[in-house]
Write a structure and sequence with these properties.
Two copies of one chain form a homodimer.
Chain A: H1 2-16, E1 42-43, E2 52-54, E3 58-61, E4 80-85, E5 101-107, E6 115-118, E7 127-128, E8 141-152, E9 155-159, E10 167-174, H2 177-180, H3 188-194
Antiparallel strand pairs in A: 1-6, 3-4, 3-10, 4-9, 5-8, 5-10, 6-7, 8-9
Amino acid sequence: MALAARLNACQLAEMAEITKPKAAISGPTPHDDWYGLREGEVVVALPDAFDASLYYIGRIRTPWRRREDCPKNARESDAVCTVELDPRWAQALTGLDSVSHVVLLYWMDKARRDLVLQSPRHYAERRGTFALRSPARPNPIAVSVARLVRIEDNRLIVVGLDCLDNTPLLDIKPYFASTDSVPDAQVGWHAEKAR
Amino acid sequence: MALAARLNACQLAEMAEITKPKAAISGPTPHDDWYGLREGEVVVALPDAFDASLYYIGRIRTPWRRREDCPKNARESDAVCTVELDPRWAQALTGLDSVSHVVLLYWMDKARRDLVLQSPRHYAERRGTFALRSPARPNPIAVSVARLVRIEDNRLIVVGLDCLDNTPLLDIKPYFASTDSVPDAQVGWHAEKAR
C-alpha cells in the first residue's frame, strides 16, 4: 500500500511540475503482486525526466474490479465491454463502424515501470520485461485487439478485453489483417511451456 | 514551418512546466501535409493538461529520412531496420530471442494531435482519426508488427517497419498469434475503396 501511494504521488507530480521519477525501489517485498517484487526480480533506476505526455481520451468499462477477477487473457472471455470515449473526440469515430476489429491502446496506471526481469505468478522461469505482456514495463501501454459489436454515439461496444474496469483509454485504431495479422508467429518460450 | 515550431515548443513545454497545450489551430493551410490542415479537415481544442507521461526507451533506425520516402505501409518493404534500445533496459530483452515477431510501439513526434476528421492524400473521402492509422491522433503512438531477425546486445534487427529514421521507441512486446492475429478482420471502408 505504501508503494501504491508512491506511484500515485508520482503520477500526480507528472501533471504538476518538472517530473523527477522516484529512485527505483530495491528491496524485495514478496507476495505483493501489484507493486512489490518477487524473488529474483530486477529493477533499474528510472530516467531522470519524461520525454512526452499522454491524454486520457476515455475509459474502458469492464466487469472486472480486481486484478484477480480479470481473465488471464482476452481470448478467455466473451464479456461485452464498453469503451467510453470523451465526447470531445466523438467526431473522430466517423467511418469506424465499417470495421470488424479495433486495436485499443490503454494505460495500465497501476503498474510499476522499473522492472527489467520478472517472475510472473503462472510461469516458473524469470524473463525480461520485453519478452512478456505483463503490465509492468517502462511505458505501461497495453495493446488489445477487440471485436467491434457496434457504436452507440461516443461508446464502442466490444468483445475481447481483459482489463480492469475504468482503465484509461489512449487510442482506437482500425485493425488491418494485411499488416497486423501474423497467424504463424511463434513465441518459443511459451510454446515450450505449453508442451 | 510556423506550425512546426509551435509543436516543438509545445513538446519542450511538456518536459519543463505545467503543460497547457496551445489552443487548436483553426485556419486551413492546404498543401502542408505534416502540420497543416487540408480542405474539410476538422480540429478540436486539446485538453488543458496531460494525464500521464512517457519515457523514450530507444530509437528506431530506418533508411527513411523524409516522410515522402517511407513505404506506404510496413508490408511494402523488406528493408532491414534496427531497434536501438537504451542500454539501461538491455536486461529486459532476456528471453525475447525465442520469438518470431515483435509488436513495436513508437512515438510519432511530428504529428499534430488535434485532428478529428482527416483527408489523407491517397483517399478521396474524409474520415475520423480513429478509423485511420494516420500519425495524427490525440496520442501519436504507432503499433507495428515486425519480424525479428536477431538480437545483437541491445539492438534488435527487424523487418517490416515503415517509420522515419530516429523515431523514438516506447515499447517492445512479443507477438502472440493466439490473441493478436485476426486473419479475417475487415476494414469495410478500405475494402470498398480497393474494389
